[in-house]
């Protein structure tokens, strides 16, 4: 089962995704032992345990004892409580529509929320990464025009970028089967090419292969070697250092209603000019960061930056992307990414993107994307579509 049957649609930007048609997730004995070890690291003693309205369990763990500090490259790492870099010029812009107040986890100060995981979560994540490496190898260029890449995105390639700030309009696409994924992301990498490619990415997604439910989740992903041996979603492996007692990777939140109330998250990913760490802010709060140690010094600047919608499906028909409606419906009808800014110097001001960036759509009959237009919340990129036979 598996690889050969993956003839449907998938997106390279959702790294680490594997779906086995009959739901069997297989790993080797060595991997199993490794996962047992990892599980022990991830499930630390909790100061307090919180069960959310969507039945997720978060353990509030002492910030200085969080799982990521067990990473061998972080042996001497001191948790950064704040980043001085964060100046007035980088203030988060107002959201159009509702933000996400009330969707924190609410751990006590001095602790951070760590989503409790079972072995099956790790097996799935591991199995994903195996498929990804095999399918990715067939496609030398992630933006190549092949029928299995389904994304609608805006790309700033070969431009040195040190940070990205945008408002992500959030939806909860209804998937056709539980082995599909649909979401929207900001993605930064060292660029195309070899196995040393480093990636950091933040967004929202309905991702049952990882989360085992149909909710929309805040998620993040990183790798230091193109997904070969390092990296994972959220904190499914040690790496991302959580700072906020409240906003948590993996947390569920509600989606917008088509032509109704709109939900947005203000997402900022930036390289701190002093420490070199890549940090993440959501709605003005420091969520956490990827320490530079993880990237072996190789991730000094991002050379490949994408914003947009992504779907994955092991077979046809493909799921909806964004609101399930095309870009032409505008804000309220189509999903958008707004207030699009980036940093073109380390620790520099956030400036509006160049509106001449390239828009890519892999399957125009299923999904569409607009060129960015200037709205009251800044440069706005609309994308999405109903999916179907793509
Ligand atoms: C999620 O939705 C799919 C169909 O889209 C359904 O088959 C599955 O049972 C749902 N999963 C849960 C956990 O509700």
TrEMBL record:
InterPro entries: Glutamic_endopeptidase, Neprosin, Neprosin_propep. It holds the Pfam family Neprosin_AP. Residues 1-21 form the signal peptide. Residues 142-390 form the Neprosin PEP catalytic domain. PROSITE patterns: NEPROSIN_PEP_CD. It comes from the Eukaryota. Keywords: Signal. Transmembrane segments: none annotated. This is Neprosin PEP catalytic domain-containing protein. It comes from Vitis rotundifolia (Muscadine grape).
